[in-house]
């Protein structure tokens, strides 16, 4: 471990830094960032160069000790949860006209640049007297950029599990940097976070990545564990990297936040941009994560197969396991899309097997009615029941994620035992586990477009000097979201929400919930989430 005093680069950088000058005739925007850095003022060097913060005179900055968020308050309860900018800790950075202006493809676009004040509301369903609520900065190209094309030295890393679309995002970061901004130095870090200090790097060009979106997986390979913030930032510094693109799930975004904090502490001119990846769709705030649509579509093939098998025999049961460690979105959407599913089990909704209203009773009823049935089970469902029945130990992977027991096998065995031992009826059960086959395919057409927009938004943000942000779709608009916002909690299926009710009504399955379960779920959802703007919000509200 390297101490601050032992690193000469930190002292040198700190000695060079000084309080920003008061800008002439420009609004000074004060804000307070959480930890070690002193209070700073974001300024804009020239009138042709809009400041990174909102320019509207009515906005005042709020301060929130203990919060990592950069909060801007406006009228009528308007709150902007802004993302950091290089000028927050580096003063007098020169800016340059955005080279996109010279690009023939984009020069005809009527309003190509995003208005500096554009923000996107988190909540779109409002009442006439409700406050305007939380907003995020709108993503997109800015008039001026904080990097000269020739000076950019970017790198890309992929971490965590696989997900359809990883290669598309990699490709579009490289092509976006090159075609829109004329950047030609992009390094691929191999093997996830530990690749920064333990693996090789590869030079990436539009030509070398031309075809990669047609392949599953990640050409950079990935890993879990191995995040050593100081070693990673040392490596970034040693290589002269000044833009870091980090693609990964909730764990990866936490790692990206740690890297950003260390970079900021060392006062380096390095932009850190996260692109959220998770096939489980469990990242908070954003509408959905890339690869999710592809996964739901591919899951249909497994469900169809299970259905064909089940309806072709007497008392046929098809059990399909889908991914979803903590969140059952893939299972829920795949079930809703298919209409062949009779029962969907997810981690968020407790269920029980035996007795009145239990799963076995429902299976029996369904077989008597229809002669066959299909069950979709998310991998994280029923883990408490399995642990109870197998007296198993808790295990974790290299990143500290819970290692799951195979709910599909366990459930299939349980159903077989139930019907055999009680001589209820002869059943014919087929268990299909397509999880890794689904995760390993290339992204479908709509995910490819989505990946492209995410990658381009990340590139625009980094070029414009924003840092410490995750790019994401909020209510259909590309935004920059502070890391903390996407890592503080997981996106989960809300079982008291209308979407889960739609599922229950489509499958006709029992909810398996006691009134106590419903009460607990309601309490979980109703707990207000205080921000410094004192705006209460509910994640994943009804659609
Ligand atoms: N709290 C944390 N602080 C720093 N690094 C972290 C943290 N949590 C996870 N990481 C690092 O992020 C990387 C990926 O984490 P993880 O394996 O949990 O996958 P993920 O990004 O959550 O993706 P997935 O959706 O596949 O779970 C790992 O290298 C891990 O060490
Ligand atoms: O086997 P691995 O690579 O650890 O990944 C499995 C996990 O990854 C995820 O797909 C999330 O990326 C989970 O659904 C699943 O539990
Ligand atoms: Mg994760």
UniProtKB/TrEMBL annotation:
<feature type="binding site">
    <location>
        <begin position="249"/>
        <end position="252"/>
    </location>
    <ligand>
        <name>ATP</name>
    </ligand>
</feature>
<feature type="domain" description="Phosphofructokinase">
    <location>
        <begin position="154"/>
        <end position="460"/>
    </location>
</feature>
<feature type="compositionally biased region" description="Basic and acidic residues">
    <location>
        <begin position="516"/>
        <end position="528"/>
    </location>
</feature>
<keyword id="KW-0460">Magnesium</keyword>
<keyword id="KW-0324">Glycolysis</keyword>
<dbReference type="GO" id="GO:0046872">
    <property type="term" value="F:metal ion binding"/>
</dbReference>
<feature type="site" description="Important for substrate specificity; cannot use PPi as phosphoryl donor">
    <location>
        <position position="251"/>
    </location>
</feature>
<keyword id="KW-0418">Kinase</keyword>
<dbReference type="GO" id="GO:0005737">
    <property type="term" value="C:cytoplasm"/>
</dbReference>
<feature type="region of interest" description="Disordered">
    <location>
        <begin position="1"/>
        <end position="55"/>
    </location>
</feature>
<dbReference type="InterPro" id="IPR022953">
    <property type="entry name" value="ATP_PFK"/>
</dbReference>
<comment type="similarity">
    <text>Belongs to the phosphofructokinase type A (PFKA) family. PPi-dependent PFK group II subfamily. Atypical ATP-dependent clade 'X' sub-subfamily.</text>
</comment>
<dbReference type="Pfam" id="PF00365">
    <property type="entry name" value="PFK"/>
</dbReference>
<feature type="active site" description="Proton acceptor">
    <location>
        <position position="280"/>
    </location>
</feature>
<feature type="compositionally biased region" description="Basic and acidic residues">
    <location>
        <begin position="1"/>
        <end position="10"/>
    </location>
</feature>
<dbReference type="GO" id="GO:0006002">
    <property type="term" value="P:fructose 6-phosphate metabolic process"/>
</dbReference>
<keyword id="KW-0067">ATP-binding</keyword>
<comment type="function">
    <text>Catalyzes the phosphorylation of D-fructose 6-phosphate to fructose 1,6-bisphosphate by ATP, the first committing step of glycolysis.</text>
</comment>
<feature type="binding site">
    <location>
        <begin position="224"/>
        <end position="225"/>
    </location>
    <ligand>
        <name>ATP</name>
    </ligand>
</feature>
<keyword id="KW-0547">Nucleotide-binding</keyword>
<comment type="pathway">
    <text>Carbohydrate degradation; glycolysis; D-glyceraldehyde 3-phosphate and glycerone phosphate from D-glucose: step 3/4.</text>
</comment>
<dbReference type="InterPro" id="IPR000023">
    <property type="entry name" value="Phosphofructokinase_dom"/>
</dbReference>
<protein>
    <recommendedName>
        <fullName>ATP-dependent 6-phosphofructokinase</fullName>
        <ecNumber>2.7.1.11</ecNumber>
    </recommendedName>
</protein>
<comment type="subunit">
    <text>Homotetramer.</text>
</comment>
<dbReference type="GO" id="GO:0005524">
    <property type="term" value="F:ATP binding"/>
</dbReference>
<feature type="binding site">
    <location>
        <begin position="436"/>
        <end position="439"/>
    </location>
    <ligand>
        <name>substrate</name>
    </ligand>
</feature>
<dbReference type="InterPro" id="IPR035966">
    <property type="entry name" value="PKF_sf"/>
</dbReference>
<keyword id="KW-0479">Metal-binding</keyword>
<feature type="binding site">
    <location>
        <begin position="278"/>
        <end position="280"/>
    </location>
    <ligand>
        <name>substrate</name>
    </ligand>
</feature>
<dbReference type="InterPro" id="IPR012004">
    <property type="entry name" value="PyroP-dep_PFK_TP0108"/>
</dbReference>
<feature type="binding site">
    <location>
        <position position="161"/>
    </location>
    <ligand>
        <name>ATP</name>
    </ligand>
</feature>
<dbReference type="GO" id="GO:0003872">
    <property type="term" value="F:6-phosphofructokinase activity"/>
</dbReference>
<dbReference type="InterPro" id="IPR050929">
    <property type="entry name" value="PFKA"/>
</dbReference>
<keyword id="KW-0021">Allosteric enzyme</keyword>
<feature type="binding site">
    <location>
        <begin position="323"/>
        <end position="325"/>
    </location>
    <ligand>
        <name>substrate</name>
    </ligand>
</feature>
<feature type="region of interest" description="Disordered">
    <location>
        <begin position="515"/>
        <end position="543"/>
    </location>
</feature>
<feature type="binding site">
    <location>
        <position position="379"/>
    </location>
    <ligand>
        <name>substrate</name>
    </ligand>
</feature>
<keyword id="KW-0808">Transferase</keyword>
<feature type="binding site">
    <location>
        <position position="250"/>
    </location>
    <ligand>
        <name>Mg(2+)</name>
    </ligand>
</feature>
<keyword id="KW-0963">Cytoplasm</keyword>
């Amino acid at each position: 471990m390297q101490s601050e005093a032992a690193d000469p680069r930190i002292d040198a950088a700190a000695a060079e830094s000084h309080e920003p000058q008061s800008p002439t005739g420009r609004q000074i925007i004060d804000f307070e960032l959480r930890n070690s850095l002193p209070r700073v003022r974001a300024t804009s060097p020239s009138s042709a160069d809009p400041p990174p913060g909102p320019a509207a005179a009515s906005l005042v900055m709020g301060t929130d000790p203990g919060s990592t968020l950069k909060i801007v308050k406006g009228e009528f309860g308007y709150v902007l949860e802004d993302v950091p900018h290089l000028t927050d800790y580096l003063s007098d950075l020169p800016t340059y006209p955005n080279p996109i202006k010279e690009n023939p493809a984009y020069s005809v676009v009527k309003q190509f640049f995003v208005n500096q004040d554009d923000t996107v509301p988190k909540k779109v369903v409002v009442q006439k007297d409700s406050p305007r609520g939380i907003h995020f900065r709108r993503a997109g190209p800015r008039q001026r950029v904080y990097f000269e094309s020739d000076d950019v030295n970017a790198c890309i890393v992929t971490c965590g599990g696989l997900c359809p679309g990883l290669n598309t995002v990699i490709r579009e970061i490289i092509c976006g940097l090159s075609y829109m901004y004329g950047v030609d130095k992009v390094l691929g870090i191999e093997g996830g976070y530990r690749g920064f200090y333990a693996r090789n790097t590869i030079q990436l060009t539009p030509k070398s990545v031309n075809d990669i979106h047609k392949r599953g997986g990640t050409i950079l390979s990935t890993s879990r564990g191995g995040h050593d913030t100081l070693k990673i930032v040392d490596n970034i510094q040693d290589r002269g990297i000044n833009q870091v693109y980090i693609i990964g799930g909730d764990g990866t975004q936490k790692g990206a936040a740690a890297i950003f904090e260390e970079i900021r502490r060392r006062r380096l001119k390095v932009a850190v941009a996260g692109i959220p990846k998770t096939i489980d769709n469990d990242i908070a705030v954003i509408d959905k994560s890339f690869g999710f649509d592809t996964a739901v579509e591919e899951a249909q093939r497994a469900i169809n197969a299970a259905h064909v098998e089940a309806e072709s025999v007497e008392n046929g049961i098809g059990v399909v396991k889908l991914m979803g460690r903590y969140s059952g979105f893939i299972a829920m959407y795949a079930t809703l899309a298919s209409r062949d599913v009779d029962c969907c089990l997810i981690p968020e909704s407790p269920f029980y097997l035996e007795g009145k209203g239990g799963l076995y009773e429902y299976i029996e009823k369904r077989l008597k009615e229809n002669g066959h049935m299909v069950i979709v089970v998310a991998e994280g469902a029923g883990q408490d029941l399995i642990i109870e029945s197998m007296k198993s130990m808790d295990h974790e992977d290299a990143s500290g994620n819970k290692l799951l027991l195979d709910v599909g096998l366990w459930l299939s065995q349980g159903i077989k035992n139930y019907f055999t031992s009680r001589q209820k009826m002869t059943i014919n059960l087929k268990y299909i586990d397509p999880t890794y086959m689904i995760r390993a395919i290339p992204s479908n057409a709509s995910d490819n477009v989505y990946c492209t927009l995410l990658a381009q938004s990340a590139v625009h943000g980094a070029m414009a000097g924003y840092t410490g942000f995750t790019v994401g779709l909020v209510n259909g608009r590309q935004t920059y979201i502070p890391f903390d916002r996407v890592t503080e909690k997981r996106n989960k299926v809300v079982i008291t929400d209308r979407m889960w009710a739609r599922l229950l009504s489509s499958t006709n399955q029992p909810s398996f919930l006691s009134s106590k379960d419903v009460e607990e779920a309601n309490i979980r959802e109703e707990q207000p989430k205080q921000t410094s703007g004192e705006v209460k919000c509910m994640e994943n509200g009804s659609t």
